[in-house]
Specification:
Layout (H helix, E strand, L loop, with lengths): L2 H4 L11 H18 L3 H7 L6 H8 L16 H14 L1 H21 L2 H12 L5 E4 L9 H4 L3 E5 L2 E11 L7 E8 L5 E7 L5 E5 L12 E11 L10 H36 L1 E2 L2 E2 L4 H30 L4 H26 L10 H13 L4 H13 L6
Parallel strand pairs: 1-4, 2-4
Antiparallel strand pairs: 2-3, 3-7, 4-5, 6-7, 8-9
Helix pairs in contact: 2-4, 2-5, 5-6, 5-9, 6-7, 6-9, 9-10, 9-11, 9-12, 10-11, 11-12, 11-13
Amino acid sequence: MSELLTGDLYQFEAMLDAQDHQVLGRLRAFLDAEVRPIANDYWVRAEFPHQLIKGFAEVDIAGLACPAEDGRPRHSLLTGFLAMELARADASVATFFGVHTGLAMGSIAACGSAEQQDRWLPAMARMEKIGAFALTEPDSGSDIAGGMRTTARRDGDVWVLNGAKRWIGNATFADLIVVWARDTEDGKVKGFVVEKGTPGFTATKIENKMALRMVENADITLENCRVPETHRLVNATSFRDTAGVLRRTRSGVAWQAVGVMMAAYEIALTYAGERQQFGRPIAGFQLVQDLLVRMLGNTTACLGMVVRLAQLQDEGTFRDEHSALAKAYCTTRMREVVGWARELLAGNGIVLEYDIGRFVADAEALYSYEGTREINSLIVGRAVTGISALT
């Protein structure tokens, strides 16, 4: 497809090597065949299409975000383009995959011991076990670092977890849930892998969402939930380790935002070429072309930002402010793009059969999760001024 049709005007995808192109092409074929045809139906039903898990396993991309066997980091540009491509098809599916690979697998890869990594990551990479990530609480979102109420109390070789979590993606069906809790003894935030079926663990699906309706977010309760010491992530000793996981996944959300922008631009461009008004395609009207160019400008600028972000990750110079700025900026520009696309489609923009309405709604969730624009702005503000305004 032409870069003018995909929104990749500056041909950033050409930076991928031949092997990476094959991986991306494999994912695109799967999304075209299996995801796009069912996305609106499952979005309306507010159900996750579990049959896709087998297809994701066959595409074989879940393990790419984890370190290679020789210890070197994977090619972040490829994993970024994969996240973008997923969101370009559907933001709910992209979120499911990001929770599983980035948050759950990422937590185990970053904070688990070698034995814990060997125990859980291979099965997760094969999609035989699905992961979730439980951090946000009913009364603590942006202030979770200091406001976490979920507790972990050591009892011999077991930890007893008590508390509640909210907005936990995949939690209704996940096999492994990474739960963050505050140690009652030292007050430090620590990570635990809770297996499905553990007594005292309950996940209740959140209903009536207006965004990411395919994602099965849950309210979690932990009532004297006993987890063995072997399930405590040994390298998660404070919230700083949790933040390290979020630093990496925020960059993934920025890539997702670019994918949503690309989808909105493509929908609008195709519609403009087909829709006839006043005897000719609306693509020939000046105001329509202006909207399309604004969409393309936002998409190109944000794609350039996340490509450079991937390079910083692989160079080892990646910092909190880098991912925070990308997440805040790209999701803000994304909101503009989906709004302009809906405007271009006029009344048809609110009908699901034209797809853009789903992207407009789902963009609101991407704008808020993994740190609001305001919180990410304060992370960047702290870096550039040397003064924290977070407290």
